[in-house]
Write a structure and sequence with these properties.
By secondary structure, the protein is mostly helical. It contains 17 helices and no strands. Among the domains are: about 100 residues, Tetratricopeptide repeat domain (Serine Threonine Protein Phosphatase 5, Tetratricopeptide repeat); about 70 residues, no CATH class.
């Protein structure tokens, strides 16, 4: 159909970067990457303008299907098309590498980005902090960058704090995470549901269940609506702490607030109830799960 559009017009109709871009977007959306890259070559042959956004469509597609090295390969093809990648392109690839846990490669890419004259920004430093928070050995470096951000003209935002809180909780550094939550609130920044959920999960993992419940109540008071992951994390902590009855009560709260329990929520409750010998309640939850579908 794409080719027939040209064939049907004898008056000189030619595809431009918009029609090529739309076709490439469609191909990438159904994971047809080779034909999509073939379209790039065809654009070059037909002397059609190839834009940075068209390249990034393919790069993001590769990132979505967990093929970061292909994303980098396509990124480097830009130069063959006389395109100079901008900050947007560098940040896109940098974020893909971090998301896919190619941390060393990501940090090397960040250095390359800086050498190319791309200035630091809140976005780039947030991604770098996220990369450094993935390993216990580099968390201190993440904090150092965080503290130096204002000196670089980059004020930490809610995402910066949330990234650090999430990273610290995953590494069991709950006290530091709590201090950061307090600090961001002092600065007038609103913690996200993700930040609260990370900290609630961390508190449950360290068996600080009372604090986790208090934090849930605090987030609701602050107008931050818990999600299914927030409730499931707290239920998991309660069940592991031998408090499955309280977890059942939390399930009712969750439903009243119009959140649908998922498979993890139900499995957590059933497991906790069975471990406490509450088999009748466990069967009731199983029936409820089946009814929900």
């Amino acid at each position: 159909m794409f080719d027939s559009a040209t064939d049907e017009y004898n008056n000189g109709f030619r595809h431009d970067h918009k029609t090529f871009g739309a076709m490439i977007y469609r191909l990438v959306s159904v994971n047809q990457f080779r034909p999509a890259e073939g379209m790039l070559e065809r654009m070059k042959q037909e002397d059609c303008e190839v834009t940075e956004d068209i390249f990034l469509t393919i790069c993001r597609g590769y990132g979505r299907v967990h093929r970061p090295l292909d994303a980098i390969r396509v990124f480097h093809k830009m130069e063959k098309f006389q395109l100079r990648p901008t900050q947007k392109s560098y940040l896109t690839i940098f974020d893909i590498l971090v998301e896919e846990n190619y941390v060393k490669r990501a940090i090397g890419f960040y250095k390359e980005m800086r050498e190319k004259g791309i200035p630091p920004s809140v976005v780039s430093l947030n991604i770098l902090i996220k990369a450094l928070c993935k390993n216990k050995e580099t968390v201190e470096s993440a904090f150092q960058i965080f503290r130096e951000m204002p000196n670089r003209g980059c004020q930490p935002d809610s995402y910066t704090y949330g990234t650090l809180i999430n990273g610290l909780c995953k590494l069991g550094k709950i006290s530091q995470a709590k201090e950061l939550l307090d600090e961001m609130e002092e600065k007038g920044l609103s913690p996200s549901v993700v930040s609260y959920t990370s900290l609630i999960h961390g508190l449950c993992q360290s068996n600080n269940l009372d604090e986790a419940i208090e934090l849930l109540e605090e987030m609701i008071r602050n107008g931050i609506e818990p999600n299914v992951f927030t409730y499931s994390s707290l239920m998991d902590g309660l069940c592991k702490g031998g408090q499955s009855s309280q977890a059942m009560e939390l399930l009712e709260v969750m439903v009243r607030r119009r959140h649908s329990p998922n498979m993890v929520t139900y499995s957590t409750l059933i497991d906790g109830l069975c471990k406490e010998g509450k088999h009748r309640e466990a069967v009731e939850i199983l029936d409820r799960m089946r009814l929900q579908g």
